[in-house]
Amino acid sequence: DFQLRHGVSLGLWAHLKDQHGARSQCSQEADKPHRRKGEKTYSCDECGKDFSRTDSLKTHQLIHSGVKPYSCDLCRKSFTQAGSLNRHQLIHSGVKAYNCDLCGKSFTEAGGLKRHQLIHSGVKAYNCDLCGKSFTQAGSLNRHQLIHSGVKAYNCDLCGKSFTEAGGLKRHQLIHSVVKPYSCDLCGKSFTQAGRLKKHQLIHSGVKPYSCDLCGKSFTEAGGLKKHQFIHSGVKPYSCDLCGKSFTNAGCLKTHQLIHSGFKPYSCDLCGKSFTEAGGLKRHQLIHSGVKAYNCDLCGKSFTEAGGLKRHQLIHSGVKPYSCDLCGKCFTEAGGLKTHQLIHSGFKPYSCDLCGKSFTNAGGLTTHRLIHTGFKPYSCDLCGKSVTQAGSLKRHQLIHSGVKPYNCDLCGKSFTEAGRLKRHQLIHSGVKPYNCDLCGKSFTEAGSLKRHQLIHSVVKPYSCDLCGKAFAQSRNLQKHLVTHFWN
C-alpha cells in the first residue's frame, strides 16, 4: 500500500528494503558492536576472501555455487548478479560514455576508464614477489601469479590444452569452432577475437609506434618489440627437452617441438605435402599458384614471399655477416652457416636407401635421389641436355652463352662458375688435400682422387671396340682411340 500511495516503484522499494531494512532491523544492527569503516569481518569458507558486509559475501558465494540466474537475451551469456548483466548489456548497445582525455579510448563503465588511466600514469603498485614484475591492477597480478604456480585448471575437451584462466580457454575454443566473427573491412581476413582484428588492422595503417633502440626496427605491438629485443640480448630462455635447441619465445619452441612429434596436420590438396604449421602450407601453396609478387629491383628475380626477396637482396649487397670459425667462409644467412658447419663436423644424418650415400641436409638427399629415378625434368633448349635440377640447367646454359664472369687473378683463366674458379685456384696454391691410400699420390679435388683410384681397381669399364683394350677412365679410352686413327 505504501508503494501505491507514494508512487514508489517496486524496484526502488525492494532496493530500500534490502539495502536499508526496516526500522526494527536498524535498531537491531545498532545493538551490535561498532565496526570500524573498512574492516572486513566476513570471510568466505571456500576461498578465504574477506568482506565488510554480509550481502557482499553472499553475492561472492554465488561464484562458487555456479548459479548464474541473470542471462543476456542477445548472446545468452549468464551472470551471478543483475549488475553484471546490466554492465554486459552496454557492450551490445555500443554505448561507451566514458572517454580517456589522453588517448581518446572509450569505455562502457567508469571503472574501465579508471583502470585504463593507470596505464598512462605509469603507476604499477602491484608487484610479483617471485619475479618482480609490476601491474596496475591487483587482478592482473593475481592472474600473473598463476603462471608461477603452474596451475592450469581449465582444460580444452577437444585437444587437451590447459589454461590458467577461463577466459584463455574460451578464446582458445574459438579456434576449434572455426567461427571467426571479426572481419577486416580492407582485406576480408577474419579473426576469432576482436583484439586480434585490431592488431591486424595496424598492418594496413602502417603505424609502427614501437621502435628498437638498438637497430631502429619498428613494430605495431609492444609484444613484438619485446620478442625482437631478445635477438640483441642473445637470451633464449625456452629450450627443447629433446634436442636442447633454444628459442627467444614460447611460440617458437612449440612450433619446433612439432618437428620431433612428426605431426603434420596441414596437407596440400595439390601435391599431398604436409606441414606442421598452417603458415607453412600457405607459403607452399604459393608455389602451385605461380604468383611471385615480390620482385628484386636489381635483377628482376621474383619471389613468392617477402622473406625470400630479403634473403636474395643480401647477395647483391655483398654483406655476409655469418662467418665460419673453422675455415673463415662467410654466409648471408645464419641457416647457411649452420648447414656449412655440418661439413666440418662430418655428421651426415640423411642416408640414401638405395646406395647408402649420406648427406648433411635433407635437401641434398632429395636432390641425390633424382639420380636413381633417372628423372631429369630440366632440358636445355640449345643442345637438348637434361639435368635433375634447375640450378644445374642454369650453370650448363652458361657454357652456350660463352659468359665466364669468374677470372683467376694469377693466370687469367675464366670460368662459368665460382666453384670451378675455387677448384682451379687450388692448383696455384699447391695444396693437395686428397691423398691416395695405395700409392700416396695427392690431388687438389676429391673427384680427381676417385678417378685415380680406378687405376688401382681391377674394374675397367671403358673398352675399345676396335681392339678390346679396357681402361679405368673414359679419357684414357679417348686417347687410345686416337692411336687407331693415326695408324
From TrEMBL:
Keyword Zinc: yes
Keyword terms of this UniProt record: DNA-binding, Metal-binding, Nucleus, Repeat, Transcription, Transcription regulation, Zinc, Zinc-finger
Entry keyword annotation includes Zinc-finger: yes
Subcellular location: Nucleus
Domain C2H2-type: 42-69, 70-97, 98-125, 126-153, 154-181, 182-209, 210-237, 238-265, 266-293, 294-321, 322-349, 350-377, 378-405, 406-433, 434-461, 462-487
Bilayer-spanning residue ranges: none
GO CC term, one of those recorded: nucleus
Gene Ontology molecular function: any one: RNA polymerase II transcription regulatory region sequence-specific DNA binding
Principal localisation: nucleus
Superkingdom of this protein's organism: Eukaryota
Cited function: May be involved in transcriptional regulation.
Similarity annotation: Belongs to the krueppel C2H2-type zinc-finger protein family.
Name of the protein in its database record: C2H2-type domain-containing protein
Organism this protein belongs to: Oreochromis niloticus
